[in-house]
Design brief:
3 helices, mainly alpha
Length: 81
């Protein structure tokens, strides 16, 4: 028995709503991926800039070379004013 017009419209609406939700989730995942990639690029740039400083300058700043990655990641407990 064929579906009535209202049943067909209802089915299409449900499919469209599901597709919209799927596309929205994919967009959010892609946006999160792009944001994480941007953070990694910025972190790499910061690490490279600090690593380019000579040992005396790092010592004046109170930073050891081995602490640079943790400092950039914010996991060293130091707070930047």
């Amino acid at each position: 028995m064929p579906l009535s017009r209202s049943a067909r419209v209802s089915n299409v609406s449900h499919v469209a709503a599901g597709l919209h939700g799927l596309l929205e989730a994919a967009h959010e995942a892609w946006s999160a991926h792009r944001a994480a990639a941007a953070r990694r690029r910025e972190d790499a740039k910061s690490i490279a800039e600090l690593a380019a400083l000579d040992d005396l300058m790092l010592a004046d700043l109170g930073i050891s070379r081995s602490a640079i990655p943790a400092l950039v990641a914010g996991t060293d407990g130091l707070r930047v004013p």
